[in-house]
């Protein structure tokens, strides 16, 4: 018998073992790119891109957007909390909730300006 130690495959680190961290980073970046590609395809395919006025191409149109919700009253963020302010908040909340509930989400065009309660672009 030979007393020399016999090298086996299990004693040598494999390529995967040597570069485990690098492989993990590459796979994470690849997965992120795939998910971003899918989300951008959904964003453009669903029509949400056309509603996004924050995009640079719509900078000139932003000033022309008319807010048709002129009866909206914002609730004060400061002040005391008592029964009067709670009642006022509930009244304002219920008024806005009724507007939301009146829209049929399963209709033909739930993202139309009328359904969303936003005004049309002034020409």
Topology:
Elements (H helix, E strand, L loop, with lengths): L14 H4 L1 H26 L2 H4 L7 H4 L20 H19 L11 H4 L7
Describe this structure in words.
It is a single chain. The chain has 123 residues and is mostly helical. The protein has six helices and no strands. The chain has helices at 15-18, 20-45, 48-51, 59-62, 83-101, 113-116. The model has no long low-confidence stretch (mean pLDDT 77).
Percentage of residues in strands: under 5%
Mean pLDDT: 77
Uncertain segments are: none
Radius of gyration: 29 Å
Query: What proportion of the residues is helical, as a percent range?
Result: 40-55%
Categorize the overall geometry: elongated
Q: End-to-end distance, in Å? A: 96 Å
H/E order of the elements?
HHHHHH
| DSSP, total strands | 0
Give descriptors for this structure.
single chain; 123 residues; mainly alpha; 6 helices; 50% helix; 0% strand
Short summary of the structure?
With 123 residues, the protein is an all-alpha fold. Helices cover 50% and strands 0% of the residues.
